[in-house]
Specification:
The chain is an alpha+beta fold. It is about 35% helix and about 25% strand. Helix 3 crosses helix 6. The longest helix is centred in the middle third of the chain and has 16 residues.
């Protein structure tokens, strides 16, 4: 069975799209997934499955809709794909605070125009890099007021995406190896 990393978009934000992680784990186990583990409350799951990542994505979006009544987008990566994301680490030499270093995981690669728009939005010492189906962003002055971060979390990307800080990214890889 393959280890998969499942990232739910926009769950448990303030009072929106609430899913308790124990209930999510239970639902996934009942659906036949193995070795299910969650990390923090923002929809990070590591599990084992014989199904391909794309099939798991669709299955979980349907399961969440049926079980929790929520329309939540899901992005899935294999353990090997997540390891490649960590290995590439384009800002490893400058991104000293992992909470201010984000990776946006996309369902598919963004268009060139979207990438240019993101690059233009980077202000001050911010940096953004597009590699495959990921966008890496370094926000040294904080994420909260960053125009770049706002653009990366919105629907303006043209594809489904969900961001995680570097601490979460590396912890999910560790969990996939446990």
């Amino acid at each position: 069975m393959a280890r998969l990393i499942v990232l739910l978009r926009g769950v448990n934000l303030v009072r929106r799209n609430r899913i308790a992680m124990p209930a999510l784990r239970e639902a996934l186990e009942e659906a036949g997934y193995a070795d299910v583990a969650t990390y923090v409350q923002s929809g990070n799951v590591v599990l084992s499955s014989r199904k391909a990542a794309k099939l798991v994505q669709g299955d979980l979006e349907k399961l969440i809709a049926e079980r929790f009544g929520l329309d939540i987008s899901v992005v899935v990566r294999t353990r090997a794909q997540l390891a490649a994301v960590v290995e590439r680490n384009p800002f490893g030499k400058v991104a000293k605070n992992p909470k201010l270093y984000q990776v946006t995981f996309l369902e598919s690669a963004p268009g060139a125009e979207v990438v240019r728009k993101l690059e233009a939005a980077a202000a001050g010492k911010e940096q953004v890099a597009h590699i495959g189906r990921e966008l890496y962003a370094w926000h040294p002055d904080g994420v909260g007021r960053s125009k770049l971060a706002a653009l990366m979390s919105g629907k303006g990307l043209g594809v489904t995406g969900t961001a995680r800080n570097w601490t979460t990214v590396t912890r999910l890889l560790e969990m996939a190896d446990e």
